[in-house]
Amino acid sequence: MNVRSPAYRVLTSSDQNRDAALQLARGARISLALFTRDLEPAIYDNQDFVTAVQQLALRSRYSHIRILVIDPTAAIKDGHRLIELGRRLSSFIEFRRPTPEQVKRSDTFLIIDESGLLYRPMSDRYEGYADPDYAFEARTHLREFDAIWEQSESESEFRRLGL
Q1: Residue 114: which domain range?
Q2: What's the pTM?
């Protein structure tokens, strides 16, 4: 059954996406999975979101945060806060780059605890939806994420420390 919770929200702007991502990250108990084209600075490069991810990472030794980034070049060059956090907490936060066959996807999504989901069918647009309790849809996207993750490559640029 594909039932939306009362918290289901339609998203149409970067502000709404940023707020929904923050709400999801703050509600995460053990895991966060993010599939993104370029770490979308308008959504994920803000101190509130990074703090929520940090709190998740430090909450438990079982916490795990996995981030797939198709093109991390600008985010690395611009000093994206999530990358900096990942460098400091590399035991809990892992970045990978999908293989060339996988980069043809046009969507982007954030999944927490196999139940919360922020989804946008077109990564270059802000139209999408978010729901902290949409387990069926979240698990469907998490299976896709896991398949891409298994074939993806660790990105050494994420681990490099700036001087």
Answers
A1: 11-157
A2: 0.92
